[in-house]
C-alpha cells in the first residue's frame, strides 16, 4: 500500500480548517500561516522597523493593561479557531477568561476557540487584507475591538463593534 503524502501548505490554497491544520502540523519551517475565508495566507519575512519594533511596543502596552486588569489574558501570535473557514493567527490578542464571562475559550488541544475581545495586527505589507478580509471575518465573529497599526502609513485604525458594524475611532497618527 503506498504511503499518503500530505502536500505542503502554499499561499493561496483553499482549504477547510481541518485540512489547513493537518498541513500546518507537518510544516517544520513555517512559523506563521492563517486561514481567512478558506484561503491560506503566509506572510513574508518580518522586518525590524516594519514589524518587530512596533510589535514589541504593542506587547508592552497590552502587558501593562493586563497587569492592571484582573481576568484579562494577553497572547502573542496565537492561533484562533473562529469557524470551519477561519483560523487567523493575530499578532496580539486580549481575552477575558471564559469563567469570567469572556466569549472565547481554550480548547483541550490548547487553541483559542471563539472570538477574543480585542485583536491587534501590525500591518506593514498586510494592510490590504488586514483592513478588508480579516476585518470582515472578525466583525462577523464578534471581536469587540480590532486595532490595525499601518506602520508605513504611520496610522492606527481602532475599530469597535457596535450593532454588528465596526466603527473606526479615527485614531491619531503614530
Automatic annotation (TrEMBL):
Record-annotated Putative restriction endonuclease domain positions: 23-171
Alphabetically ordered keywords of this record: Endonuclease, Hydrolase, Nuclease
Cross-referenced InterPro entries: Nuclease_put_TT1808, Restrct_endonuc-II-like, Uma2
UniProt GO molecular function: endonuclease activity
Pfam families: Uma2
Protein name: Uma2 family endonuclease
Species per Swiss-Prot/TrEMBL record: Gomphosphaeria aponina SAG 52.96 = DSM 107014
Amino acid at each position: 500500500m503506498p504511503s499518503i503524502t500530505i502536500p505542503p501548505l502554499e499561499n493561496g490554497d483553499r482549504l477547510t480548517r481541518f485540512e489547513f491544520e493537518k498541513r500546518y502540523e507537518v510544516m517544520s519551517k513555517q512559523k506563521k500561516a492563517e486561514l481567512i475565508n478558506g484561503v491560506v495566507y503566509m506572510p513574508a519575512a518580518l522586518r525590524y522597523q516594519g514589524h518587530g519594533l512596533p510589535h514589541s511596543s504593542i506587547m508592552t502596552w497590552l502587558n501593562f493593561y493586563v497587569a492592571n486588569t484582573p481576568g484579562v489574558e494577553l497572547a502573542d501570535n496565537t492561533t484562533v479557531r473562529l469557524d470551519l473557514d477561519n483560523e487567523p493567527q493575530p499578532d496580539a490578542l486580549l481575552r477575558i477568561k471564559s469563567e469570567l464571562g469572556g466569549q472565547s475559550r481554550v480548547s483541550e488541544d490548547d487553541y483559542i476557540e471563539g472570538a477574543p475581545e480585542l485583536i491587534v495586527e501590525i500591518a506593514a505589507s498586510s494592510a490590504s487584507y488586514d483592513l478588508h478580509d480579516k476585518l470582515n471575518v472578525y466583525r462577523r465573529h464578534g471581536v469587540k475591538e480590532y486595532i490595525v497599526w499601518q506602520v508605513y502609513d504611520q496610522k492606527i485604525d481602532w475599530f469597535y463593534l457596535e450593532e454588528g458594524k465596526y466603527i473606526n475611532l479615527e485614531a491619531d497618527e503614530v
